[in-house]
Give the backbone structure.
Amino acid sequence: MKKYHFIYGLFCLLTAVLVVYSLKAPALLSSANENSAQTQFIKGKIIQKQDENFAVKLEDERGSIIKTKLSEFFIFDDYQVGDKVSVYITQLEEGGTKYDIADYYHYDGLIFAFLIFCVIAITVAKRKGVFSIISVALSLILFYTLILNAVRIGIPVLLAGIIYVLLITVLTIPMIHGFNKKGLSAIIAVNVGYIFGLVLTYWFTAIVKIGNTPAEEFRILSQQFPDVDIRQILMVSLFLGVVGALIDVSVSICSAIFEGMKEHPKLTFIKTYQLGMNVGKDILGSMINTLLMAYLAASMPFLVLMTLARYNNMYEFLNYDFIALELTRIFIGAASIALLIPITSISAAYLVAKKTKILN
């Protein structure tokens, strides 16, 4: 147990060093439009509205009030007096400042929603709820500091993605499920599953002919920042889509196996492996549908737009680059989960059999 804590401490230290380095390192990539006007966002509050003319009090050190209209770039919403908004401020090259209402100000609402989530999680799951909250916050912070900052400072994003999933796996699984052989077997299985996931990612994208810019956001990124390795961004995007599912499946199988061991302490390696496989098979179908629903729900407005504006049949719909991208993402996830089931079953069965000293 002390050995596990020591290794965990080393990973925590490594994580802290990487976070500090990524935040302190200078940016190496620049926009293709470096000579364009400088922009920033600032919080504001609408204090007066007349048709499409707004008076907004900026919540900066001056508390200045600006007059603005909604830019054609931003879709009109039903803004009312008292609403908090993000104001898009542009410092024009020829001098002067332009103000546009970009969107509602979301930060305060996100904090409130997060607090509600925390209360519910802690009420239901008690101690594990607290660690689940910490793991969510840790995953979000590391995603920003390691992956997004890796792009900014010029580190290969694929390398950053691999480091990210490794750290998240090693740090969050013991935190939530304990420093025990159940957590260790899940960590081993998930990291082996990552290798297969990466191989499947490269293989499936080659089979489907995804290309490097299969969606509009990839094309915009490529045009604005031509030095960014779009291919690596695509690979990491596809790979990260399956990471959460792999962790979930692996932990679920390991939990079932180690709970079964409590009831039947003399389980052999073969019996334990079969138990894991049976649990994994039950999980597989529901998890694939979960991935499908999650990706379709996230893309639904765009899918409706494409269906109404362009496509008359299923063949045209499936052949569109964005749809091919999302379906490939699902296939990668499903295949990775299917391969992870025997890997996790073997890992957990080995540790169970080793613990009971009846490896057959």
User: Anything to note?
Assistant: The longest helix spans residues 107-153. The two ends are 26 Å apart (CA to CA). The longest strand covers residues 38-50. The chain has a mean pLDDT of 83.
